């Protein structure tokens, strides 16, 4: 089936403009003519639809995400199939993925990073409580809107406890750069596996690059299993450094076991930066901010932090996106980040 602006799916969803393109599908801004509201529609590509495994992943995403309701999870509204084209209807999130923010700003202030991580933890905890492991937590799947509110997207490789695996023996799921060691070894995902991915994001956001890079995805996965985590620069506060170290333990039993456990540590941490953390509570409300240890704006920064830290939020209007994978490059993005290896 040919998909283009003006295509109507399910007799009610009219595609307006293309937002993002991923490995399995395209994401469109669309209008729900029945309820008269804007939505995002993820359409599975013809090549992916012909692949039974991709189609099952797409169906899993619809089934798993549809049962999750929380302010920090992008809501799935509908699922359908038209002339062999599978599509998923989601709430339209006016924001941009964290990957684009990191591409532009290189690093984040600690309180802002902690807030984004806490928001993500709240959404992941709801998914885990429902028996759904995301298995592909990464900056491209975290949409950040005004006020640094976070929506988790793309449960395409997630797995519910009552589902059979879609992988063959020896295969792993997820993105290599954020893959927990146990997943790289082909072991089942647990809440601690998603927590590990948050540790990689935290490392990347304070250093300016990921801890493990290599020429291939396989080599990166092996590094997660065997290589020690590189030392953090002295510019990182002691509390946050301890948290990142603990979250990136190779043994999942030594990590914070749940996203809520990580959120609580972030909330009580003494951080360096210019703003207080605004952690979202389990009910989506505001949580108490941790004590903040300020440092002078003229304090020297340790070399190797990956770039100049940008304080405050951008005043730029964020592009609308519900991107399930890495967001398309922005025309004004700064080309200073390390290759993604």
UniProtKB/TrEMBL annotation:
Compositional bias segments (type: Basic and acidic residues): 327-341
Keyword Metal-binding: no
Residue ranges occupied by any Protein kinase domain in the UniProt entry: 13-267
Enzyme Commission code(s) on record: 2.7.11.1
Gene Ontology MF terms: protein serine/threonine kinase activity
Sequence segments annotated as region (Disordered): 272-341
Enzyme class of the recorded protein, top EC level: transferase
Pfam families found in the cross-reference section: Pkinase (PF00069)
Keywords of this entry: ATP-binding, Kinase, Nucleotide-binding, Serine/threonine-protein kinase, Transferase
Superkingdom of the organism of origin: Bacteria
Keyword Transferase: yes
Protein name, entry field: non-specific serine/threonine protein kinase
Species annotation: Demequina muriae
């Amino acid at each position: 089936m040919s998909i283009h602006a003006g295509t109507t799916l399910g007799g009610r969803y009219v595609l307006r403009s293309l937002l993002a393109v991923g490995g399995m599908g395209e994401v469109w801004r669309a209008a729900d003519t029945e309820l008269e509201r804007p939505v995002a529609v993820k359409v599975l590509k013809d090549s992916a639809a012909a692949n039974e495994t991709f189609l099952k992943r797409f169906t899993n995403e619809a089934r798993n995400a549809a049962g999750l309701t929380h302010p920090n999870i992008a809501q799935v509204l509908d699922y359908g199939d038209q002339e062999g084209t599978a599509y998923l209807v989601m709430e339209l999130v006016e924001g941009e993925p964290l990957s684009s923010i990191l591409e532009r700003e290189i690093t984040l202030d600690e309180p802002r990073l902690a807030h984004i991580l806490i928001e993500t933890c709240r959404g992941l905890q709801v998914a885990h409580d429902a028996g759904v492991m995301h298995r592909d937590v990464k900056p491209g799947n975290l949409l950040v809107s005004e006020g640094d509110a976070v929506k988790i997207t793309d449960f395409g490789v997630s797995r519910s406890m009552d589902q059979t695996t879609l992988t063959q023996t020896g295969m792993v799921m997820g993105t290599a750069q954020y893959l927990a060691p146990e997943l790289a070894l082909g072991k089942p995902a647990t809440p601690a596996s998603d927590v590990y991915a948050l540790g990689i994001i935290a490392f990347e956001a304070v250093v300016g690059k990921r801890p493990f890079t290599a020429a291939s995805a396989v080599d990166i996965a092996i590094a997660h299993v065997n290589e020690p985590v590189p030392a953090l620069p002295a510019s990182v506060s002691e509390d946050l450094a301890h948290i990142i170290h603990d979250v990136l333990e190779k043994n999942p039993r030594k990590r914070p076991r749940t996203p809520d456990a990580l959120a609580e540590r972030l909330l009580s941490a003494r951080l360096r930066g210019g703003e207080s953390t605004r952690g979202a509570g389990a009910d989506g409300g505001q949580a108490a901010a941790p004590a903040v240890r300020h440092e002078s704006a003229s304090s020297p920064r340790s070399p190797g932090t990956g770039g100049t830290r940008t304080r405050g939020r951008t005043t730029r209007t964020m592009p609308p996106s519900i991107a399930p994978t890495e967001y398309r490059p922005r025309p004004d993005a700064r080309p200073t980040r390390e290759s993604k290896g």
